[in-house]
Design brief:
Layout: E1 2-3, H1 14-38, H2 44-71, H3 75-96, H4 99-106, H5 115-130, H6 137-167, E2 170-172, H7 183-195, E3 201-203, H8 207-216, H9 220-231, H10 247-263, H11 269-274, H12 282-315, H13 322-337, H14 341-344, H15 350-365, E4 368-371, E5 383-388, E6 394-403, E7 413-418, E8 421-422, E9 428-429, E10 432-439, H16 452-469, H17 491-496, H18 503-509, H19 521-529, H20 535-554, H21 563-575, H22 591-594, H23 604-622, H24 627-638, H25 646-654, H26 661-667
Parallel strand pairs: 1-9, 6-10
Antiparallel strand pairs: 2-3, 4-5, 5-6, 7-10, 8-9
Helix pairs in contact: 1-2, 1-3, 3-6, 6-10, 8-9, 8-13, 12-20, 15-18, 20-21, 23-24, 23-26, 24-25
Length: 672
C-alpha cells in the first residue's frame, strides 16, 4: 500500500496552527512516556517504530507550513512561524534530554537488526549525546534556552535579509544607463516600474537583477550603486543602514554556539559540527582547505592580473574595482572564447529544459517524470511531478518552483516535505521534495529561458531531490537525505551538474527559441573551452568562504571586538585575489552559516566535490549515459540515503576510496 496523498497548502489553518502544533507536541511527549512505562525489553518495533511514527506525523504537519514561510512570506506567516520555533526547540530538547528514553535505545540488541537499522540506532545514540542527555539538570535547562535562542536568532537573521532586499529599489529614468543589460532584466525592471506608475525602470536586489547588472551594465556608476546596495544588505551601512542590521545577531549566534559546544565538552563549535560529518577533526578540514589554497592561489593571482591588464587596455580602467570584476570577466571571456553567456540563453527555453532534465534522469536511472494535475499549489508558477520507476511504481513527488518573486527567500534550495516511511500495516508514505529556485521570469508573452549557469543550478537542486525521492529505505532515520553526513550531502547535487557540460546531454536540453536548433557543435566547443575560465579565482573565492566559516567557529572568543569582521579580513589577506570594497558586509547576509545548516560546514561543498568529480569519472570512462554506471549510482548512493555511511556508500559505488585528482582536473588546476 502506498500513500499518494499530497499536502493541502491552501488549507493550512494559519490562525490555529500554533495551538495545533502545541497539542501535537504534548501528545507525542505523553506517548513517549507511556511507551517507556510499558516496555520491559526495548526493540525496534516497540520503541524506534513508534518514535518514527511521531516524527513522520510532525514532519507532515510542519514542513508544508515551513515551506510557505520561505516562499510566500507574509507578516502573519512570519508571526506564527516565530511563535512555533521555541515550541519545537523545547520539544526537541525534551526528547534529547530524556535519559530514560536514551537508556532504552541503548538496550536494543543491534545484533537482531539489519544493517540500516543498526546504523540508525548508532546515529540516534550519538544524537542523544550531542543533545545533552548526560548533562546535569541545570545544564540541560541552559542547553534548552540556547536552542530556543539560536532558533530565534537564525530566523531573525534570514528575515532581515529578505526585508533588506524588499526595502531597496532604484528608479532609473534615463534609458541610456540601462545599456548592455539583457532583455529579461530590462523586461522585469520595466514591469516593476509600470506596477508603481513610474516611467523608465525600477531595479531591485533580487538575485537575477543583481547578477545581471554587475555582469552586463555598461554604466560603471550603476554597477557600483547596485553592488554597494547588495553587499551592504542587513548591515549598519548602505541604503537601509541599521534598519535590518544582522551585525549583533551574528555575534549572538556565535556566542550561543560556543556555549552549546562547551556544555557538551567540546573546545569549540567546529569540533561539535564535525561530530556528525565525514571529516574526523578540525585539523583534517584545515589541511584539506589549506592544500587547495596552496594549489589554486598562484593561478588565481595570475588570472586576476590578466583581468586587470585587460581592463586597462580595453576599458581604460586603471584600478579594477569589485563592481568591475564580473563585467570585465564576461567581456574577456567573450574575447577569448567568442561566447557570451546571454548568447546561450535562447537555447535553453524552460519548456525544453524541463523535459530534457526528465529525459536525462530517464536515461540514467530509468525513472519517468509525470506532471500531476489539479494539485494544491502555493503559486501558479509551481508544478508537481510524480517519479515512476521502470515497473511504473511511483517512487515519490517533487514540487518545482523556478522563478523569483516578492516575499520569496533568495537563492536555490531543496527541502523535504515528507520522507519515505513504512507503517506497521504496510502502508508506505511516499517521499515529497520541494525544488526552489529564483530565476528571472520572462516578460509577458515572451518565452521563459534560462542561462547555462541557471540550468546548472536546476540540475544541482534536482540532484538533492533525487536522493530524497528515490530512496528505498523505509526507516525515517535513514530515508532519503535523513542521516546523510553533511559533508557528503552535496555529492548527488554536484555530481548531476556534470550533464550540463556534455554534448549528448545538451541535445536534450537545448532548442533555440527562433531557429529550433539544438546547440551547434561550434558553440558547444566554445562553451566547453570556457568552462575553466578563471576557475582558480572561483575556487579561492569558495575557499575564502569555507575558511572564514570554519575559523570563526573554531577560534571564537567571547568579547573580542569586531571578531567576525577581523577574521574575514585576515582570511582575505591569505586567500583572496579580488579587490574588496571598504563597505563590503558579505558576512551580514551569509545565511548558509548563520541561518542554514552549514555552520562550520561550508567546507562541505568542496569536500563533497571531491566525491562528485571522482564519481563522475566512471561516466567519463564508461559513457555519459552508461546504464551500468547509472544503475550503480542509483543503487549505491541515491537509494540508500543515510542508511549507509557515506564513505562506505562511495566505496560500494567506486570500489575504492575517493581521490582528489578528478576535482583538480575538473577545475583545470592540475591532477591526472
Amino acid at each position: 500500500m502506498l500513500n499518494h496523498s499530497l499536502p493541502d497548502f491552501s488549507k493550512i489553518d494559519i490562525n490555529n496552527f500554533t495551538a495545533k502544533l502545541d497539542e501535537m507536541l504534548q501528545k507525542h511527549l505523553q506517548e513517549i512516556d507511556d511507551i517507556l512505562n510499558n516496555i520491559k525489553h526495548p526493540t525496534w518495533d516497540n520503541l524506534i517504530y513508534p518514535l518514527d511514527k511521531m516524527s513522520n506525523e510532525l514532519e507532515q504537519f510542519w514542513s508544508p507550513f515551513s515551506h510557505l514561510h520561505a516562499v510566500l512570506n507574509s507578516p502573519k506567516l512570519r508571526e506564527v512561524y516565530q511563535a512555533c520555533l521555541p515550541k519545537l526547540s523545547k520539544y526537541e530538547s525534551a526528547i534529547g534530554h530524556n535519559k530514560k528514553l536514551y537508556n532504552a535505545i541503548t538496550q536494543i540488541d543491534v545484533a537482531r537488526l539489519n544493517s540500516a537499522q543498526a546504523k540508525i540506532i548508532q546515529d540516534s545514540i550519538r544524537d542523544f549525546e550531542l543533545s545533552g542527555v548526560a548533562l546535569s539538570d541545570t545544564d540541560k535547562k541552559r542547553f534548552e534556552e540556547i536552542s530556543v535562542d539560536l532558533a530565534t536568532a537564525s530566523n531573525k537573521f534570514e528575515n532581515n535579509i529578505l526585508d533588506a532586499v524588499q526595502d531597496y529599489q532604484l528608479h532609473i529614468a534615463d534609458e541610456s544607463k540601462m545599456r548592455g543589460l539583457p532583455e529579461h532584466i530590462l523586461a522585469s525592471a520595466k514591469a516593476l516600474a509600470i506596477k508603481q506608475n513610474l516611467s523608465g525602470y525600477v531595479l531591485n536586489l533580487e538575485q537575477p537583477t543583481f547578477v545581471g547588472v554587475i555582469t552586463y551594465a555598461d554604466d560603471r556608476d550603476l554597477r557600483e550603486k547596485i553592488y554597494e546596495a547588495y553587499l551592504t544588505r542587513a548591515s549598519e551601512i548602505g541604503p537601509s543602514a541599521g534598519k535590518f542590521d544582522n551585525t549583533y545577531l551574528m555575534d549572538e549566534i556565535l556566542e550561543l554556539r560556543s556555549q552549546h559546544a562547551k556544555l557538551l565538552g567540546f573546545s569549540n563549535y567546529a569540533e561539535l559540527s564535525l561530530a556528525t560529518k565525514m571529516a574526523d577533526s578540525p585539523a583534517d578540514v584545515n589541511k584539506f582547505l589549506s592544500d587547495l589554497v596552496n594549489i589554486a592561489y598562484p593561478k588565481a593571482k595570475d588570472e586576476f592580473a590578466q583581468l586587470e591588464q585587460f581592463g586597462l587596455e580595453k576599458y581604460q580602467i586603471a584600478k579594477v574595482a569589485p563592481w568591475d570584476v564580473a563585467y570585465l570577466s564576461e567581456k574577456r571571456q567573450h574575447l577569448m572564447f567568442e561566447i557570451y553567456q546571454e548568447e546561450l540563453r535562447p537555447y535553453f527555453p524552460v519548456d525544453v529544459v524541463m523535459p530534457g532534465l526528465f529525459a536525462t534522469i530517464k536515461k540514467l536511472y530509468d525513472m519517468t517524470f509525470e506532471r500531476v494535475a489539479n494539485t494544491d499549489i502555493w503559486h501558479p508558477d509551481v508544478e508537481c511531478y510524480s517519479i515512476l520507476d521502470k515497473e511504473k511504481h511511483i517512487r515519490g513527488y517533487i514540487y518545482i518552483d523556478l522563478f523569483a518573486r516578492e516575499n520569496k527567500r533568495s537563492g536555490a534550495w531543496m527541502d523535504s516535505c515528507r520522507s519515505r516511511f513504512r507503517h506497521a500495516d504496510g502502508l508506505v508514505e511516499l517521499p515529497i521534495a520541494t525544488l526552489t529556485c529564483n530565476f528571472a521570469k520572462s516578460a509577458e508573452g515572451k518565452i521563459a529561458t534560462l542561462s547555462h549557469s541557471e540550468v546548472e543550478t536546476l540540475f544541482h537542486e534536482c540532484g538533492h531531490c533525487l536522493q530524497h525521492v528515490l530512496t528505498k529505505v523505509d526507516y525515517l532515520g535513514g530515508s532519503g537525505i535523513n542521516g546523510v553526513e553533511w559533508d557528503a550531502v552535496e555529492l548527488p547535487s554536484q555530481f548531476f551538474e556534470n550533464w550540463c557540460w556534455d554534448k549528448e546531454a545538451l541535445k536534450l536540453l537545448t532548442k533555440h527559441i527562433e531557429t529550433g536548433k539544438s546547440i551547434e557543435r561550434e558553440l558547444f566547443q566554445k562553451l566547453v573551452a570556457s568552462k575553466n575560465f578563471q576557475s582558480a579565482m572561483a575556487l579561492v573565492r569558495q575557499l575564502e568562504f569555507a575558511i572564514f566559516d570554519f575559523e570563526i567557529h573554531e577560534k571564537y572568543m567571547q568579547g573580542v571586538e569586531n571578531f567576525i569582521a577581523n577574521t574575514l579580513t585576515d582570511v582575505r589577506k591569505r586567500v583572496s585575489v579580488l579587490p574588496i570594497a571598504a563597505y563590503n558586509r558579505f558576512q551580514n547576509s551569509f545565511s548558509h552559516i548563520f541561518a542554514g545548516g552549514y555552520a562550520a560546514g561550508y567546507y562541505s561543498y568542496k569536500w563533497a566535490e571531491v566525491l562528485s568529480c571522482d564519481a563522475f569519472s566512471r561516466f567519463e570512462r564508461e559513457g555519459i549515459f552508461s546504464k551500468q554506471a547509472g544503475g550503480d549510482f542509483l543503487k549505491c548512493i541515491l537509494e540508500v540515503g543515510g542508511s549507509v555511511k557515506a564513505s562506505q556508500a562511495f566505496y560500494n559505488y567506486m570500489g575504492r576510496e575517493a581521490k582528489i585528482d578528478a576535482l583538480l582536473r575538473h577545475c583545470g588546476i592540475g591532477g591526472a
